[in-house]
Amino acid sequence: MEKRHPMRVPVHLEAELISRGNDYSGLIRNISENGAYVETAPTDTLEGFIPGTILELRFQLPSEETLSLQCEVTWLYSRKTLPDGLINSMGLEIKSPPPEFEEFIKTLFFPLFE
Questions:
Q1: pTM for the whole thing?
Q2: What is the CATH superfamily name and number for domain 9-100?
Q3: Where in the chain are the domains?
Q4: Nearest residue to 92 via CA among 30, 24, 11
């Protein structure tokens, strides 16, 4: 039986990732009702992003409200960028999304079906 994945919407949202007490800048590239694809700004580590790690993903909604989501890293791909360091690309599973996130997701999906 084929496993169905939720539809993802391409976005360009600046984000902050908090993992193991450290803050990292990032960019959310696409998002769904239960996951996100995120890239970090160049950093010198991949340690805070190993699959299985629980981290906090913060970003600003169009209403200017800051949303904080607890996520689990499901996969990681790191690439070296000279001379800056590593760019970590990762898939995140969103754990227990709050109602504000669910409302935000609806605003992204409704235009796709008009």
A1: 0.88
A2: predicted glycosyltransferase like domains (2.40.10.220)
A3: 9-100
A4: 30
